[in-house]
Amino acid sequence: MQHLVQLAQAFANETRLGILTLLLDGEATVSDMVTRLGLPQPRVSTALAQLCKAGVVSVAMVGRQRVYRVDAGRIKAVLHALQALAPMTPRRSPQATREVRGNTAIRQARTCYDHLAGVIGVQLQEEMLRRAWLEQTESQEHTRRLYRLTPHGAQALRERNVDIAHAQKARRQFAFGCLDWTERREHLGGALGAAILEAMVTAGIMRRPPSTRTVVFLKPVMDWLDASSSDYADAPEDRC
């Protein structure tokens, strides 16, 4: 029973769950995780030490780097079981409820790791699905919904300078539905979500103030979605 308690504790933390979910996409170094999770290095290292002690994460030396990995089959089974126990309607935390009631800036738009979240993040994914830029894949192997770009969507994002080729080469899931902290609906996560956020910053649609997860939109996200190809005439060709 003591070992089961230790295992349960390994999953009972948002940072550790984030690391495990990230490692389902493939092995990663501490620096990879710090960049992708947007967390301080000491916090990531502490969480990794706890996961390794519990035996759910393993580490190996690859050259001079420590590379962390998980047994994806085992971890997916645990996450599926936890989701089966969860309420059918996901509940907001007390803090998230306060943000919603106050309709705060962090509720409206923020980063979730390295992609866009909040009201605008949810709006972005729903609009991309409505326009048939995204479609759900048929895979049943993951605990979250996976998406792919349609040819129409790939063309539209290339015209908006989204680096699709780089996103497809990343050692991580390309696009998935990430349950939003305040909205309890999906926003777009994965390498594609990160690439879209960077393209919006470059285009002057939004900016990311330092030392905060809140992002500031300088123009409506619909302006970016509705822009014609001529507005991005200098978009680089995607050669993937």
Order of helices and strands: HHHHEEHHHEEHEEHHEEHEEH
The largest sheet, given as strand count, sense and whether it forms a barrel, is: 2 strands, antiparallel
The best one-word shape is: globular
Q: How many angstroms separate the termini?
A: 50 Å
Strand content: 5-15%
How many extended strands? 10
Whole-number total of structural domains? 2
Low-confidence segments, given as residue ranges, are 235-240
Mean pLDDT: 87
Order of strands across the main sheet = 1-2
Describe the overall structure:
The strands form 5 sheets. A two-stranded antiparallel ribbon has the order 1-2. A two-stranded antiparallel sheet has the order 3-4. The protein is globular, with a radius of gyration of 19 Å. The protein is α+β, with helices and mostly antiparallel strands. It has 2 domains: 84 residues, Winged helix-like DNA-binding domain superfamily/Winged helix DNA-binding domain (Arc Repressor Mutant, subunit A, Orthogonal Bundle), CATH 1.10.10.10; 139 residues, no CATH class. A hairpin with a 2-residue loop joins β1 and β2. 48% of the residues lie in helices and 14% in strands. The protein has 12 helices and 10 strands. The termini are far apart.
